[in-house]
Amino acid sequence: MPDEAGMSRADRVRVQEMLLRLGYYKGDADGIFGPLTREAIRRFQSAIGAEMTGHLTAEEASRLVSTH
Fold first, then answer.
1. Is the pTM for the entire model greater than 0.85?
2. CB 2 within 8 A of CB 61
């Protein structure tokens, strides 16, 4: 999975769907990374011990979407 700059809309939707499934996100999986998505990303980053930037690195995005 690429970092955010390289993500397609489908990648972004997939990220939001995983954040939703894991309980970090409560919005729509629309592919738009607005304030709710940014906060969900920060919660995910906190849970994995990463810096809470609200922006996914390629490694974090890959880790997120490979979580079952």
1. yes
2. yes
Give the Cα-Cα-Cα angle 52, 33, 19 (nearest 5 degrees). 65
pLDDT digits (tens, 9 = 90+) for 9-57: 999 999 999 999 999 999 999 999 999 999 999 999 999 999 999 999 9
**32-61 exposure pattern, b = at least 16 Cβ within 10 A, e = fewer:** ebeebbebbbbbbbeeeebeeebbbbeebb
Q: CA-CA distances (angstroms) from residue 4 to 21, 23, 46, 51? A: 20, 21, 18, 16
61: helix, strand or coil: helix
